[in-house]
Design brief:
With about 150 residues, the protein is mostly beta strands. The protein contains one helix and ten strands, in the order βββαβββββββ. The chain has a domain of about 100 residues: Umud Fragment, subunit A, CATH 2.10.109.
Length: about 150
């Protein structure tokens, strides 16, 4: 098994909340077990901007490049919603700026350092010390996947 140190690259994009796109929603839920009688119509709608974005001026989208967070359900090509206004804390998944590059890892604070933990055993943790140029850029709040 090869152990890699990956710094996930993200294509960062600001959110645009000026648009309104209300989509129909199945208000009774969608069963994952036995099917229920189909609804004849969907009269409720949701706006994904309102569902996914709490702080528009501090929220960005990022396209994931890399597999270091695979076991956390975040894969290459996924779109993440990142909120820069949220405080970092242990076990949160964060987009960090480390020594001139972006990376996305789980945060773990230590006595005199911070650890950036991958969610894939093929990658090793990154120890961040005062010698590093380090900034926690934002906290991942949603992952949007395509199948």
């Amino acid at each position: 098994m090869m152990i890699l140190r990956e710094r996930t690259v993200l294509d960062i994009h600001p959110v645009a909340i000026e648009t309104l796109l209300e989509l129909p929603v199945a208000d009774g839920g969608i069963r994952a077990g036995f099917p229920s009688p189909a609804q004849d119509f969907l009269d409720l709608s949701i706006d994904l901007n309102k569902e996914l974005i709490r702080n528009p001026t501090a929220t960005f989208f990022g396209r994931v490049k890399g597999e270091s967070m695979r076991d956390a359900g975040i894969s290459d090509g996924d779109l993440v919603v990142v909120d820069k206004s949220l405080p970092p804390s242990d076990n949160k998944i964060a987009v960090c700026f480390l020594d001139g590059e972006f990376t996305m890892k789980r945060i773990k604070t230590g006595k005199d350092c911070c650890w950036l933990l991958p969610a894939n055993d093929d990658f090793k943790p990154i120890k961040v010390t005062p010698d590093n140029d380090f900034l926690i850029w934002g906290i991942v709040i949603h992952v949007i996947k395509s199948f």
